[in-house]
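Please decode residue identities from the backbone states below.
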């Protein structure tokens, strides 16, 4: 016969569809009150709801003999409950030093990895952790203290992907009372009583002070706030996704991840959603989000009102550049700086330019008496030049200071930078555009234009045909 606490947990699981028939639930069991309560709750429901339970215990190697006793307790408990149990031994102190993490962070990562390993190797479909309502209140307070936005107020969600928290509907007091009523013995972890960890300081000092001096229901009210924040956040996330589809485009190039944001379309987006959209854009370009702060988002929004070509640096090596139509965010792929130096062209012959992955084929032709100008190929990536005019060895490269090209038959010059600006070529595209150069004189910008100085004329004797293709 189920009591009211057990019914409350079952209803919470069903409400959020945490577990369905034929699931295999991997549950972390430390031996402490919360995880032991979770194990008993799941075992009490497994036949009724038709799912399997697998336990996972991680010995952190910190508490010596006490940790070994916890391990034996969990193994014996699982035998009594007929639950398969996987044990992991990890040196969390060593891991924390190597990764330059706190013990708290390293322990959390180690447990997560262990649970996911069991899930992969033993056919798990869900991973259950013993977070309860007070844990959620502590998380929200911790997020507020460290500096957070609306997402941080959401706290711990009942479920996210394969991770579920069946005890989130219970308080710590309800869990302890239920264990006492059932006369279930659990392990005692002395480190949970220490204030070395930030969360413990909130648990032992901040939250009790709020409940004693401000309101006895502080933890419950903070938890309820997180539930409201979750609903608001889900709405905003949906609107942000709509704005992303309308305003942004992502491209995974050989040179890195590029996110383009349309300035004209951004004008139609609600100001509140703009901030979330820009955060999403930075996150997509960076591949990470943790160090993206409000100051970075504000800087990108300000960039929309600045001159074309202005740029700012963002976390994780991302650069945001103002373009003619909006902003481009780019994070260069690691190791892509190699191979960008000029490459001398083989004339005649084939040359590979590793920085763009293009092949440059050069052919020398003698100009015959019956040569006609209309026979010169007019394709964007195949051009003919007066070879005898070339002063130096031709090279394939990116732009450099002092580059220019001839814009007419009289030899008038234009700086390459001015040409790109006039043609509204985005700055980040200019930096990665292949050029065929004769010293500082740009012979050809493939796909755009060639210098007037190298056109074939009446005095031309040798013709250089250059064809550019993709691939080595």
């Amino acid at each position: 016969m189920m009591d009211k606490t057990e019914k409350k947990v079952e209803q919470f699981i069903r409400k959020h569809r945490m577990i369905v028939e034929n699931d295999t639930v991997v549950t972390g069991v430390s031996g402490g009150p919360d995880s032991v309560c979770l194990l008993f709750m799941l075992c009490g429901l497994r036949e009724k709801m038709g799912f399997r339970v697998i336990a996972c215990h991680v010995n952190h190697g910190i508490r010596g003999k006490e940790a070994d006793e916890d391990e034996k307790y969990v193994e014996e408990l699982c035998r009594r409950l007929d639950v398969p149990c996987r044990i992991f031994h990890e040196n969390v102190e060593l891991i924390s030093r190597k990764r330059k993490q706190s013990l708290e962070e390293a322990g959390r990562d180690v447990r997560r990895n262990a649970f996911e390993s069991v899930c992969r190797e033993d056919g798990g479909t869900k991973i259950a952790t013993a977070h309860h309502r007070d844990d959620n209140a502590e998380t929200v307070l911790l997020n507020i203290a460290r500096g957070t936005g609306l997402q941080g107020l959401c706290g711990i969600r009942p479920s996210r992907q394969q991770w579920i928290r069946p005890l989130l509907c219970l308080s710590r007091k309800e869990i302890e009372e239920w264990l006492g009523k059932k006369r279930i013995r659990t392990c005692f972890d002395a480190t949970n009583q220490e204030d070395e960890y930030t969360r413990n300081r909130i648990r032992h000092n901040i939250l009790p002070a709020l409940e004693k001096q401000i309101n006895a229901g502080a933890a419950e009210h903070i938890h309820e706030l997180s539930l409201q924040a979750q609903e608001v956040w889900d709405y905003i996330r949906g609107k942000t996704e709509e704005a992303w589809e309308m305003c942004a485009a992502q491209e995974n190039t050989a040179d890195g991840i590029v996110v383009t944001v349309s300035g004209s379309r951004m004008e139609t987006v609600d100001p509140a959603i703009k901030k979330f959209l820009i955060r999403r854009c930075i996150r997509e370009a960076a591949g990470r989000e943790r160090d993206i702060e409000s100051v970075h988002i504000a800087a990108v929004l300000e960039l929309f009102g600045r001159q074309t070509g202005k740029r700012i640096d963002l976390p994780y090596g991302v650069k945001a550049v103002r373009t003619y139509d909006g902003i481009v965010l780019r994070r260069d792929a690691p190791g892509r700086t190699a191979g960008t130096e000029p490459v001398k062209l083989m004339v005649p012959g084939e040359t590979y330019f590793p920085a763009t992955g293009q092949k440059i084929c050069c052919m020398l032709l003698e100009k015959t008496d019956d040569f006609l100008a209309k026979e010169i190929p007019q394709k964007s990536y195949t051009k003919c030049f007066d070879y005898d005019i070339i002063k130096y060895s031709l090279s394939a490269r990116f732009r450099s200071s002092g580059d220019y090209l001839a814009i007419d038959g009289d030899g008038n010059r234009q700086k390459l930078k001015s040409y790109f600006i006039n043609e509204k070529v985005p700055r980040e595209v200019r930096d990665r555009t292949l050029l065929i150069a004769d010293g500082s004189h740009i012979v050809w910008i493939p796909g755009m234009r060639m210098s007037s100085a190298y056109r074939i004329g009446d005095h031309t004797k040798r013709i250089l045909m250059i064809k550019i293709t993709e691939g080595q």
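Observation: The chain has three domains: 4-216, 231-332, 343-470.
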